[in-house]
Amino acid sequence: MEVRQVAGAIGAEISGVDLSVPLSENAAKNIRQALLDHLVIFFRDQNLTPAQFRQFAQSFGTPVEYPFVKGMEAYPEIIEVAKLEHERNNFGGIWHSDTVYLEQPPMGSMLLAREVPPFGGDTLFANQYLAYEALSERFRTILDGLVAVHSSAKADVSKTREDRIKSGGTAEAGKEFLSEHPAVRTHPETGRKALFVNVAHTSHFKGMTEDESRPILQYLFQHQIRPEFTCRFVWQKDSLAFWDNRCAQHNPINDYHGHRRIMHRITLAGDRPA
Predict the structure, then answer these.
(1) List 38, 187, 250, 261, catalytic entry
(2) What is the pLDDT of residues 87-113, one digit of tens each?
(3) Largest Cα–Cα separation, the chain
């Protein structure tokens, strides 16, 4: 197994491992350490069946169902993340951390490429440890005391789910989920602090109005995706990405109109941010 860092801030590609067979204890340990070190890890040429994909995911946590879109009939934890030729919006096409509007957001997510467009469709990832650490000491002190309120119904992100809800929405597709989490969370495994707000889901700070919260949030939304905090992954068929949802954000780029992009996604159960 070889781990090759792909950018200065975040991301590493792992080669020399076949994910279609059960991982040894040592291999799983090394992959998890690479995830903790690099926040998102990438694999190439992994032609996995749904059963093999789920088996790999179970080496690192408990797969959970997505609240808005039905999973595969035999594998409800696996959802299809698709944009079809006639569609204009892509699923989750905005900077975000996955489902932070839940009381226990996922610890991580995995995406496996089934069909990729002839160009475009890359995904950006951003390191939220670095975003927090780059702020002034005074600003960090202020943020450490704030609680952010998150909603699943913010307009920009709701629009990115519309096509998939139409084709395979769950019974809870019309429900609004709300949560309250620290604006800065401490990673339960590394002990590092990371910004935990995002433009897709964070509406305001607890005890403050949206108008009062807006200047701080708008600054953070721009700051936390500065180029020096990011990497960009170019997908190929059978590529797999696994990111740590507790300290990384991602943004799938919507630049391939007229072409198909089909992915399978698994999210892993997390804990309540602290």
Answers:
(1) 250
(2) 988 988 999 999 999 999 999 999 999
(3) 52
- CA–CA separation, 101 and 150 (whole Å): 5
**What's the domain range around 25?**
2-268
Q: What's the CATH number where 11 sits?
A: 3.60.130.10
Let me know if 259 is a catalytic residue.
no
Single-letter code of the amino acid located at 59: S
Q: Is 252 helix (H, G, I), strand (E, B) or coil?
A: strand
User: Is residue 181 within 8 Å of 148, Cβ to Cβ?
Assistant: yes
Question: What's the token pair of residue 188?
Answer: 């339960």
Q: How far apart are CA 42 and CA 241, in angstroms?
A: 5
Is residue 265 part of the annotated active site? The answer reads: yes
**Domain annotation covers residue 101:** yes
Tell me whether residue 273 is in a domain: no
pLDDT in tens, 31-48: 999 999 999 999 999 999
Number of residues that this document lists for the chain? 274
Catalytic status, residue 88: no
- Is 250 annotated as catalytic? yes
